[in-house]
Amino acid sequence: MWKYLLVLAVLAIGILYATPNLYGRDPAIQVSGTKGASADLSVLDKVNETLKENNITVKSSALENDQVLVRFTNVEEQLKAQDILRDSLSDDYISAINMSPAQPDWLKDIGGNPMKLGLDLSGGVHFTMEVDMVTALDNALETMEQDFKSDLRGEKLRYRSIRRVSGAERVQVIMRNDDDKDAAERFLKQRYPLYNFVDDSSNSLAFFASLSDQKFKEIRAYAIKQNETIIRNRINQLGVAEPNVQQQGAERIIVQLPGVQDTARAKEILGATATLEFREVDENADVRSAAQGRVPPGTEVIMHKDGYPVVLKKRVILGGSHITGAQSGIDEYSRPQVSINLDSKGGAKMSAFTKRAVGKRMATVFIEYKPSGKKDENGKALPPIKVEEVINVATIQARLNNSFRITGIDNPAEAHNLSLLLRAGALVAPIQIVEERTVGPSLGQENIEAGMTAVVLGFAFVLAFMLLYYKGFGLVSNIALASNLVLIVGVMSMIPGATLTLPGIAGIVLTVGMAVDANVLIFERIREELADGRSPQQAVHQGYDSAFSTIFDANITTLIAAVILFAVGTGPIAGFAVTLAIGIITSMFTAIVGTRAVINLVIGGKRINKLSI
């Protein structure tokens, strides 16, 4: 009895959680708050009023889980509404387009949701982005140089110069005397154990510092992981539900944005690599001479956005990596501004500098890396072009801390875009879009229809073969096969991170063929037992028992292969592995336990002389 109940319970749960897929999805827009804000009834009223003023037909709108969800009858109305809401909502809210499940509320209450569809089925845009590791290394060496200077000043160890060696991946430190040189080298070795330190054979007061292999690996791994995080933040600002961001190889990141058709906007936000630096203005420099290339040591000329040169000290007071928040707004004179929030380390750096620099001028430098559009002989994208521009020069009136603001911005739109990029984060290394693919909604629908056709045809041919070859037992096998498909859909719907892709459908088609393997083994063993003169009841019992170990071994080896594919594969391979692994597990249950229960229910405890096999 407990086996019957187990089979019924598993089937009931599978059917229940597969049911949401029958209701389809509505094109929808999801409005949610940023920086801890939540949508309320006033936001819902504003969204409804805005869409009504622009003659946008809405299927329904409601406040769900502190988010506004607006459903539409077609994709065209959805995309039109997205453009309108993006311009009308404040920075505190973002609108994300998605396909919202249309199942009843009672199914939602028990966690019943349809399967998530991959990019190839739902439509959208696919980017392959490459991280510029050369710039990541340059930034690390520049940071090393600045850290050495501040650390040795803090230890009151006097140095003559600390500079990066031209054309080499190391920094040279020259001290004033032997005692300071020994003390500095000892201090830095203790403080930076992952750096390599060697004496300069040509100068007894100097030594070199370089990155160890372990440190370089750390920089590479951090650049990838931090860029992944920043890209996800930018996607949140872009407004996309259920994106897919994952590493591919050592230097590339795959970004898939289901439902996005505005590729220009996506490239603008994802491809932009912008940050800020705060530098001290050299008050003693002759601007006219500097503009002609004669600059004092330790300084450089960067053009102001209004077209005149500004002489800045090379030492960076604060970099964009310390920025934790940015908000555009209007100052007391109705001019655009961006309010900046810093982390604790950045706030300490800004406070320490401005404490001793009251009355001096500080420049805000906007840095952007633009794709070069060129490739080397191996087809790899060349490093992007670094573009620097001074957007603001201000006199420090008082000591600054974790929060301050920058002005001198031309218009509110520019302030909004700058705050968006800064709020998303500063990249450790620039990224370039090296590949772009767009899948339209109609193509996604064609993929679904083609995949379903393959499943139906494969299912129909297997059903026909089993029914003709194994007669009554073939019918039982077909019932198990149908139950297996339902269970696969149910399990895929229950797993939060599972996504159905076109290769995933291929995995289901393969599972349809593999699912009857176990029954073929069992039924052939039953035929052998009958040929040896055993009774029908004994033949069924021996057939299931003796075939079990063979079935188990065969499926376990295939399952191991599927797990490895999922662990090391990306994209299509992982999608195929997921459905294959789920199909193997469910097919073992339906083919062994399920068919045994049905056969036992029909012939168990009965005197029969012949089996329909």
Automatic annotation (TrEMBL):
Record keywords, A-Z: Cell membrane, Membrane, Protein transport, Translocation, Transmembrane, Transmembrane helix, Transport
GO terms (BP aspect): intracellular protein transmembrane transport; protein targeting; protein transport by the Sec complex
Membrane topology: Multi-pass membrane protein
Protein export membrane protein SecD/SecF C-terminal domain location: 431-592
MF (Gene Ontology): protein-transporting ATPase activity
One Gene Ontology CC term in the entry: plasma membrane
InterPro entries: Acrflvin-R (IPR001036), SecD (IPR005791), SecD-TM (IPR027398), SecD/SecF_arch_bac (IPR022813), SecD/SecF_CS (IPR022646), SecD_1st (IPR048631), SecD_SecF_C (IPR048634), SecD_SecF_C_bact (IPR055344)
Keyword field contains Protease: no
SecDF P1 head subdomain domain: residues covered: 304-429
Domain Protein translocase subunit SecDF P1: 224-283
Spans through the membrane: 450-470, 475-495, 501-523, 544-567, 573-603
UniProt signal peptide: none
Residue ranges of domain SecD export protein N-terminal TM in the record: 1-96
Cellular localization per UniProt: Cell membrane
Chain's role: Part of the Sec protein translocase complex. Interacts with the SecYEG preprotein conducting channel. SecDF uses the proton motive force (PMF) to complete protein translocation after the ATP-dependent function of SecA.
Similarity field: Belongs to the SecD/SecF family. SecD subfamily.
HAMAP family: SecD_B (MF_01463_B)
Subunit structure comment from the entry: Forms a complex with SecF. Part of the essential Sec protein translocation apparatus which comprises SecA, SecYEG and auxiliary proteins SecDF-YajC and YidC.
Protein name: Protein translocase subunit SecD
Native species: Pseudoalteromonas phenolica
